[in-house]
């Protein structure tokens, strides 16, 4: 009889714990949704960027990509050379 009572108490405790977690997550989802709506309502809309700046930034953006690729390649080469030793 004692095993049956322990099993019932364990199931009740499990249900209580899962219920608390469910309620907490539901409150979290509701609060994040409300904060998102508040931010959308009070945040000013960002201004559109000039088209002249886009052409300048697109030509300059290819250089950092090449630089990043070179740095990554050097890091991989160095890692592989130290692992072989």
What does this structure look like?
With 85 residues, the protein is an all-alpha fold. Helix content is 88%, strand content 0%. The protein is flat, with a radius of gyration of 29 Å.
Distance between the termini: 66 Å
By DSSP (H or I, 4+ residues per run), the number of helices equals 2
Give the H and E element order: HH
Based on helices, strands and strand pairing, what is the structural class?
mainly alpha
Most strands sheet: none
Spans where pLDDT lies below 50 across 5 or more residues = none
Return Rg in Å: 29 Å
Q: What level of helicity do the residues show?
A: over 70%
Instruction: Categorize the overall geometry.
Output: flat
Chain-averaged pLDDT:
85
Number of strand segments: 0
What proportion strand?
A: under 5%
Topology overview:
Layout: H1 2-42, H2 51-84
Question: What's the short version?
Answer:
This protein is mostly helical and 85 residues long. Helices cover 88% and strands 0% of the residues.
Question: Which tags fit this structure?
Answer:
single chain; 2 helices; 85 residues; mainly alpha
């Amino acid at each position: 009889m004692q095993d049956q009572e322990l099993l019932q108490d364990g199931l009740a405790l499990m249900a209580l714990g899962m219920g608390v977690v469910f309620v907490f997550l539901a409150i979290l989802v509701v609060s994040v949704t409300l904060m998102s709506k508040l931010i959308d309502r009070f945040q000013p809309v960002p201004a559109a960027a000039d088209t002249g700046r886009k052409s300048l930034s697109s030509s300059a953006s290819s250089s950092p990509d090449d630089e990043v690729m070179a740095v990554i390649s050097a890091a991989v080469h160095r890692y592989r050379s130290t692992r072989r030793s």
